[in-house]
Amino acid sequence: MTHFTKLLLATALALPMTARAEGVVEGIHHWVSESEVGALKVLTDNLATKGFTWQDSAVGGLSGANATQALRTRLAAGNPPATMQFLGYEGVEWEKEGALRSLNDLYAKNGWEAAIAPAILPFVKADDTYFAVPINMHRQNWLWVNKGLFDKYGIAEPKSWDDLIAAGKKLKENGVTAFALSDESWQILEVFEAILTDQNGTDFYKKAVMDLDPAALSGPEMLKAFDTLREVRGLVDDGFTGRDWAVATGMVASGQAAMQIMGDWAKGEFLAKGLKPGVDFLCFPTPAAVPNFKFVIDTFGTFNIDDANITAGQDAWVETVMDPENQKNFNMIKGSIPARIDVPVDGFDDCAKRSFADRDAAVKAGTMVGGLTEGFAAQPQFAGVFFDVVGQFFVTDMSSQEAVDMLVSGIDNAR
Amino acid sequence: MQKPISLKDRLAAWLPQLVLTPSILAVFVGVYLFIAWTAVISFSSSKMLPRYDFVGLEQYIRLWSTPRWITAVENLFLFTVLFLAITIAVGLFMAILLDQKVRAEGVLRAVYLYPMALSFIVTGTAWKWILNPSLGIQKVVNDLGWHSFVFDWITRPEFAIYCVVIAAVWQSTGFAMAIFLAGLRGIDNSIIKAAQIEGASLTRIYLSIIVPMLRPAFLSVIVLLSYISIKSFDLVLALTNAGPGSATEMPSTFMFSATFRRNQMGVGAASAMMMLMTVAAIIIPYLYSELKEDRNGH
């Protein structure tokens, strides 16, 4: 435990707990959109039946960065919330600081270890200690397609990136914007990491992105991925500056553009416009020789607070989150799939069913990996270098070799 | 024999100290203590959380070998020079025009000052749309029939920083104008009359007499605008979000993303210290010269 956290925890314990009412579970999270709030209500309603009231401390904005700031302030003031939503390595860092409760007893009692995919273990467990529970699983590597446009030009599901680029060129010749994309570097990185993994397999992805192996980072596979990204650049319209991802999804929904590569949160945008999967729009995994599954999960961790009432509330909350029925109802609204792999698929839509099937296959084949863009493959300081390089590569006429050189030196500098 | 000092007198003697102490304390803790803390962090290996060890200049070396930081520093200088020069030139010119006893001066002044009342977030968002080639100026001109017209600076990394300059100038020119106008009004008319009697032309009167007499107004404008340009964070975030491809990165946006989004608190603190030194390099000579003049009885 570092000096800083010792200080934090000391103040946390020294302060009187007058502000905490009995039977209340306070949680910080960054879910503020309509579907997110609706999904969270599934959990909080169920928590209420167990005799605990949910105290909502939502902090929206900046993809969760604001909520993280709020948490740091609360910890520094010695007043941590009962629970907090974690994205990426955030929970791991707090576990290292000794701020989180061990959930080993609850995991053992309920047999949760067998219910989650091994690939997500690094985000809920460190050194034999479980410190968080996962609620949902988004898939990052989806290709969203306007069905009308694909039918009109006779394009089938692409099976490789060569297919995909060829389909894009065909659309462009017919005056259709092939890809709805933006100059925001995270949207470009979603495309780039899909190319990188699809062309070279998840073993290469693990070596280059997760282990940051210098030979893999500067190898010919990287060069080829940048070459392919350059081809994608040619299939994007001129007005791509500052375009929000949801606006890009809207372009595919309305037929202004044919395709978008985006996580399955995009599905909510199609559904909100009254469109149906399989009828109006299609969802394909990004095309790979060996299919892979890029996950993005939300987890909840519980903070060390020396108060039996709070601990009881935390137990109830953690069990609520891991309840199979709750996971099903939560994810039907949120658009993701349950983090538990033993929840039956009935009642979900076609895209989610494909997600279930692909996940099972990926777990068996060992091709399930965390998404780099959303913070599940590399620590933020390294992911940041990927953002910078692909972002600059996409809007300038930098060569693939220059991009690779920049990537290697950037990663070295951040080590 | 000395008169005993009454309680009232004693209180009166202590009152200034009593009144000033809270604000001095607040400034000391809120500003100087945190500057010192940031300096400490910049010499440590801090990542997501502060860590109190000593790694020397490592974070500074890391900072200066980050290409994005170099871009940010270049952008800051380019932006500051252009922003100051254009805002001052246009603001002064407008102030001189408004000083010609025009009709409805009050209305015009309000119109020019109005952008200052907007937040930079609003300015940035509005200009983001105005400058977008498929939504804004370019589309309007194309739709009017001039199809070859191209104005796509915001999409081009080498020109995007000028878009930030345009939006910032639009926002701040009215403010510069108001200060210059106040300065112009403070100039004694008899000096101008005397110059006219001597046969000086209008241009000559402005260049040789009026503009030099506006020196205090110039100093205020320069200091206030430099400070706007160094803290230009919200405008960049709303207008370009430091893009395309980190082409419009500024030291302030760099500091924010390093500290709060990329778990590089040490690098962020080092960049904050570099910004502090830049500001100090501008402000200290200015303060020094002003204080020296005060002592000389100006």
Automatic annotation (TrEMBL), chain A:
Q: Which domain of life is it from?
A: Bacteria
Q: What does UniProt give as the signal peptide span?
A: 1-21
**Per its UniProt record, what Gene3D superfamilies does this chain match?**
Periplasmic binding protein-like II (3.40.190.10)
- Any keyword Lipid metabolism? no
Q: Which Pfam families match?
A: SBP_bac_1 (PF01547)
GO cellular component annotations, sorted alphabetically?
A: periplasmic space
Keywords, A to Z? Signal, Transport
Q: Where in the cell is it found?
A: Periplasm
Give the family this protein belongs to, as stated in its UniProt record: Belongs to the bacterial solute-binding protein 1 family.
Q: Which PANTHER family match?
A: ARABINOSE-BINDING PROTEIN-RELATED (PTHR43649), BINDING PROTEIN COMPONENT OF ABC SUGAR TRANSPORTER-RELATED (PTHR43649:SF28)
Q: What does the protein in this record do?
A: Part of a binding-protein-dependent transport system for a sugar.
* Protein name as catalogued: Probable sugar-binding periplasmic protein
Organism expressing this protein natively: Fuscibacter oryzae
**Organism taxonomic ancestry:** Bacteria, Pseudomonadati, Pseudomonadota, Alphaproteobacteria, Rhodobacterales
UniProtKB/TrEMBL annotation, chain B:
Q: Which domain of life is it from?
A: Bacteria
Q: Which terms does the UniProt entry file under GO BP?
A: transmembrane transport
- Where is this chain's protein located in or outside the cell? Cell membrane
What PROSITE patterns does the database record attribute to this sequence?
ABC_TM1
What keywords are annotated for this sequence in UniProt?
Cell membrane, Membrane, Transmembrane, Transmembrane helix, Transport
Protein topology in the membrane: Multi-pass membrane protein
Entry's transmembrane regions: 12-40, 76-98, 110-130, 159-184, 205-230, 265-288
Q: Which Gene3D superfamilies match?
A: MetI-like
* GO CC annotation terms, alphabetical: plasma membrane
Q: Where is the ABC transmembrane type-1 domain?
A: 73-288
Signal peptide start-end: none
The cross-references to Pfam families, in alphabetical order and at most eight, read:
BPD_transp_1 (PF00528)
Family that this chain belongs to:
Belongs to the binding-protein-dependent transport system permease family.
Q: Which protein, by its recorded name, is this? A: Sugar ABC transporter permease
